[in-house]
């Protein structure tokens, strides 16, 4: 087997895995045959409207991307390779745009008929707006001749769908698993109560802590996967890159380039959202289950938020390529700010 053919076979295998993930994750999220199993808050008409698009997108990706890679593998000229890539980007962008229009039309029809649509969330609205803007930018880039940019945007949209869907299902699995294992109504929870000698309240606290820690770990891994992976990435490549980032080797080797600026902005906004979500979880779920007074709960929540924001800022600076040796003064300033904010929160929340 020639090197070109071997490379094409490996790339084609990656495409097949990607298409399988698109189809499987879509079926798991939509659950059109069993609406009661559906995890996201999606109305039945909307789910039925989305249903045909993932399988069509998977087949289009399988055929067109394989053709594009074949033209590159057999050594065709750039006059052939670039138009083929542009056609692939055009078709994928058109399909994603048609999906967004179909969803919007279905939801407007539900509202017009007085039916109850799914409960909207801020994150869902941001994802819809981001996907719409990305499709428009991809088509405009293709129109003015930036084929590579359009191709990159369409592939990243597919990759974002895979990561968001996969980690959403993993988080739900972790949450339900912790609730089942530590529930006093099930045999595992009863066994833990007898072996550890704890009550139902402590058992519930353990469940919430493990669920929260696991959720935070999955969110962190998912965020890193967005940055280090891409369309066609294998599990081995993702694991190697994630371990390199978590070990610090990848961050130390980063240099400030225009591409890193987008990563830094994305890391900043996503990190702020994650910190706010975790703080709401602390305030609404975990801390009320403890026996601490409200002042201590407020202090812990504020301290967690400040430390989290400090880590997000450091991650954004690292994504820009700032060396760790140059971040010492930033760490000192953020540490002083966190302690001062915690003291102010304690004085404010303590009774007069």
What does this structure look like?
- The chain has helices at residues 3-30, 44-50, 52-73, 78-112, 122-143, 147-181, 187-196, 200-228, 235-247, 249-252, 258-286, 294-320, 328-349.
- It contains 13 helices and no strands.
- The model is unreliable at 336-342 and 344-352 (pLDDT under 50).
- Among the domains are: 3-158, no CATH class; 273-352, no CATH class.
- Helix content is 80%, strand content 0%.
- α3 (52-73) packs antiparallel against α4 (78-112).
- With 352 residues, the protein is mostly helical.
- The chain is globular and about 70 Å long.
How would you describe this structure in keywords?
mainly alpha; globular; single chain; 352 residues; 0% strand; 80% helix
